[in-house]
Amino acid sequence: MRVVLLGSSGWLGGYVLDELAQDREVIPVPRGTVELGVTGVGDLAGRLASLAPDAVVNCAGRVGGDALGLIGANARGPAVLCAALSAAAPRARLVHLGSAAEYGAVAGRAPLTEDAPTCPQGLYGASKLAGSLAVAGSPLDAVVLRVFNAVGPGAPPTSLPGRLVRGLREAGADGVVRTGALTAARDYVDPRDVARAVALALGRATPRVLNVAGGRAVPVRDVADGLAEAAGFRGRIEESGGGPERSAFVDWQQADVSAAGAALGWRAEVPLVQSLKDLWADDPGPAPRSAAE
């Protein structure tokens, strides 16, 4: 199987590349090579036709930036990709990475199934939802994998786990780490498990949307404490009471992952504690210092 992988130089894209390269011919398309937010349908169709893929995996997108960048990459990009793929390789399989942010606020404490109402809070979630709707509504053989909160080695420094790692490195073994509110609960999944889900989705008939998550809501405070334990941190983690606006509207999320289990035979295998240990071990920052030094 020949697979074109868009966004191969991103964090999740790198894991997907490693997974797929084990037994497939993968054509990586790093960031900056093809900008879906500005590329025309005709130009992209020509590129895809020349590559003759059996499948396309779209890991490209943005998590931050201005409105034009978010809408271009996350909403326009998938729509352009679907149109170009329909023209160039209409029988190719398309796997697109969506986001738990597409669901938004949760009524009560019920796990989210794929047919749960979508009410994204903020432009990022809204732009991701628009892109996922473009994929799910296309005539292609396509699936959206709605990835919940990914955490593991190499996590971006802009993510909460990435920021916590930086704070722990800077505080030293006995210092103080100050952070925003850690009261929300999220459903975490390791990027290696995400990559396995992508690989499985390439070769099976599936529903249009599948949740990819650990399947349990974990207090964010537990993530902070898990990283502190992995770091051998003996100091204090102090919450300022602030935090991302999204946490004020979405204080709890948990996925129902039974559909992914039925369609793919997939479930998350890497425990959160291992993801956090590997994240800390993967970060090459300076060794923790004692406050007395």
From TrEMBL:
<dbReference type="InterPro" id="IPR036291">
    <property type="entry name" value="NAD(P)-bd_dom_sf"/>
</dbReference>
<protein>
    <submittedName>
        <fullName>dTDP-6-deoxy-L-talose 4-dehydrogenase (NAD(P)(+))</fullName>
        <ecNumber>1.1.1.344</ecNumber>
    </submittedName>
</protein>
<dbReference type="Pfam" id="PF01370">
    <property type="entry name" value="Epimerase"/>
</dbReference>
<feature type="domain" description="NAD-dependent epimerase/dehydratase">
    <location>
        <begin position="3"/>
        <end position="213"/>
    </location>
</feature>
<keyword id="KW-0560">Oxidoreductase</keyword>
<dbReference type="InterPro" id="IPR001509">
    <property type="entry name" value="Epimerase_deHydtase"/>
</dbReference>
<dbReference type="InterPro" id="IPR050177">
    <property type="entry name" value="Lipid_A_modif_metabolic_enz"/>
</dbReference>
<dbReference type="GO" id="GO:0016491">
    <property type="term" value="F:oxidoreductase activity"/>
</dbReference>
